[in-house]
Structure formats: structure tokens, C-alpha cells
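Long-time lurker. I teach an intro course on protein structure, and each term I like to show students one example going from raw sequence to a predicted 3D structure in C-alpha cell notation. This year I'd like something fresh instead of my usual example. Would anyone be willing to generate the C-alpha cells for the chain below so I can use it in lecture? Attribution to the forum is fine with me.
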Amino acid sequence: MFAFKTIALRGLLALAIPLAALTARDVTATETATPSVAIHFTFDRAIDASMAPFFMAAKDGRFGAERINVAFNRAAGSPDALARVAKGDSELALVDINELIRFRDKDDAAPVKAVFVLFNRAPYAIVARRSRGIHLLPDLDGKTVGVADGDLSMRLWPALAQQNGINTQHVKFHKMSPAVREPILSAGQVDAVAGFSYLSAVNLRDRGVPGGDLVVLRYADYGCEAYGFAVVANPAFAAAKPDTVKGFVRALIAGVNITVKEPARAAAEAASRVDDGDRDLELQRLRSALVDNILTDEVKRNGLGGIDPARLERSIDQIAQDFKFRKRPAAGDIFDDRFLPPVQGRLIN
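-- Reply from a regular --
Happy to contribute to a lecture. Here you go:
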């Protein structure tokens, strides 16, 4: 009897071992069937807290949940970031969408498109001192404005001035290095500076300029239709791996929601990625960007990431007031909404 049991047990074990091996192979096959996709993501400028949604999506495992492995790097401006995406050196990048509009005007430009708009309103602004007699945009008449080399806001200044009845010949622009833009204003060597609202105004307060003496003249408050920073995709990558791009967008939307709910933690995460990063300073920047650029009324109605085609067309017309297009792009050449989830999946919680 014992011998019979032993034989039977051996028979069961002999069957179990192949079954276990088969199950293990099935599990392994399932895991390797959808491996993580590596993405090189490029920021077009130095890291600041406005980029916190990307970092929170990474930190809280949202990219990993979409089976995406994201490596962040930085370029020297939007043109450089766009060139990397066009060549395929980066699959995705964060760039100024207005620079993308100009990029697409080139004869040999790759058909790079934006797939997600982070800044619903461009951050362009002129930050001035009330003590120099500036309270509104027309008060810049006869004043001197400091402008950093390569400042993107100047590309839309002619349209803004024309729209607000300002004679551009009556405003003097003093070119300078970005490193001395805020120090020169705080020292009173210019009346105002051009830049991004969430950066320059916060930097100036940090340098001791009284908040009550500062006025932030946001382009968007004076009729500028421009969108701001947007995620662009390499066209070949987007065509080959559309589900990965969709997954990236879903993870980023989750990152925005986390940032909105926990701005202090998000700012701290961004500050940890900056040499000698200041958490309190980055929190000020983040709150400013959220209120003025990301969580706009349009976004609250229509959700994150998308565009109003008619508004984008008007913004292209505003660029055309100073930029001579050889072939003016249409909204459909600039933005591709196929990678966005339905509106319900883009509304802010």
C-alpha cells in the first residue's frame, strides 16, 4: 500500500512540475509582452516649480503605472528642445508653443505637433515698479524696459502694443543677460523688465523689492491670445507608439492633480532637483503659475491639456503681426488632440 502511495505521489509531482513551469512561462510572457517604454523627455529651460506635475507623476509612480520609464534632461531653449524632438534624440519635450509655431514655418521642418498644453495662458509679462509711475501697460510710454537676450515675450510685443495703442518707438528696450535682469530693476537702473510673470515677480520680491511697489502686466490681461508651454512629440514615435503617448498624457494629468492638491510637496520635489533649491521660493512660483497660467477659467470649463482651435488661430495671427510666415501654419498643424483622454478624464478634481 505504501509503495502504491509513493508511486502515485511521484506521478502527481511529475505532472505538477511541468504545470508549474508552464504557468511560470505564462506569467513571464505576460510581463514581457508589455515592457516599459523608455522616453527621453527634454525641458526647454532650467528647472523650476512650474514643472512639478512631471516630477510628481514620476515620484508617485504614475508613469510607471503606464509602463513608461521617463528620463528627464534639459535643453538650451525651445529651439534646441524642438531640434532634439525633430531628430528623435528626445521622444517628447516641453516647449513654448509659440516657438513651435515659428519652427513649423521652416521649409524642412519636421511635422512636430503639441499633444498637451500645460500653460493655458502664456506667462509673458512686464514687471514694473509703481514708484516709477507705471500702473498700467500704456504707462510704459517713455520708459525703459530691461529685456534678456532671447526673451520670447518680445516676439509678441508688437501685437500687444498695437492692440493697446502703444507707440513702440516710445518704449526703450535695454538688452541684458538674464542673470542681471532682476538685479538691474531692483537697483532702479530700468523702469521695468520683460519676462515670465511667475519667475521675475517672485525673484524681485525675493531680492527685497516691496511687493506693493511691483505691478505685473500680464500679456494675457491685455488681449494676448497665446497659449504657453506645451508637450510636443516626435512624429515617428507618436505614430509608432500612440498608446505610450496617451499613457504619458494620462500620467501627466494625474501629476497636475497631485500638484494642485499638494502644492507644498510638489514645490519641495521640484526644489530638490535644483542646485540650492529654495522650497519656499519654488512654492511661490508654483502658486503663481497655477493661478495665472494652468488653472484658468478655460481649463476649469474644458479640462486640462486641450486648446480652442479658434483661439489658437487668433494667436497665430498675432504672431504674424511681427513674424513674416512663408507658409502660415493652421491650428491643426500645431496641435494634435488624438492623445487626450475624454473631457471627463481631464477635469480638475
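Some talking points for your students: The chain has 15 helices and ten strands. The longest strand covers residues 37-43.
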